[in-house]
Amino acid sequence: MPTQQPLDKRINYRLNLIAHGWSAVVAAKMRGKYRLNAAAMKILSVIAHYQPISPSELGTRTATDSPKIARAVGTLVDQGLVERLPDPHDGRRAVLSVTPKGARIHADIDDLANTMQAKITSELTEAERKSLYAILDKLEAGVHRQLRG
């Protein structure tokens, strides 16, 4: 049986705290400006990067459950930031794309996220940054192997 580790030594716990805090800072700075919560901002960002994207692929890329995706997409569609169109390859499905207004808002949020990343990682050397990304790639691959296995 593995030895019990304190929470601060559990990678999933630490990564979750970092991700939640990071998202909370971005959301707090942008919420008043765009009336979007953190989940809607994350969904908008993923749609912008992978459009056109189906809601099911959106769930996979965000690790978010269907009800949260549906609420966030509903908000984004209602605000004219995202459009839902028939999938040209499968008429039974819908795909999501950002509108020009959504693209402008996404660019603003993305600029803040990039600025935050630069500030948060500013104390890392270039070698440490490269190592961080290599470690994250390995951790992500390990998680995917566990999900498949």
Describe the structure.
The chain has 149 residues and is mainly alpha-helical. The protein has a single domain (7-148), classed as Arc Repressor Mutant, subunit A, CATH 1.10.10. 68% of the residues lie in helices and 10% in strands. It is built from 6 helices and 2 strands, in the order ααααββαα. It has helices at 11-34, 38-50, 55-62, 66-78, 100-120, 126-148; strands at 82-87, 90-98. A two-stranded antiparallel sheet has the order 1-2. α2 (38-50) packs across α4 and α2 crosses α5 (100-120). The longest helix has 24 residues, at 11-34. It is globular, with a radius of gyration of 18 Å. The mean pLDDT is 91.
Tags for this entry?
149 residues; DNA binding; DNA-binding; two-stranded antiparallel sheet; HTH_MarR-typ; 6 helices; globular; 2 strands; mainly alpha; 68% helix; Arc Repressor Mutant, subunit A; WH_DNA-bd_sf; single chain
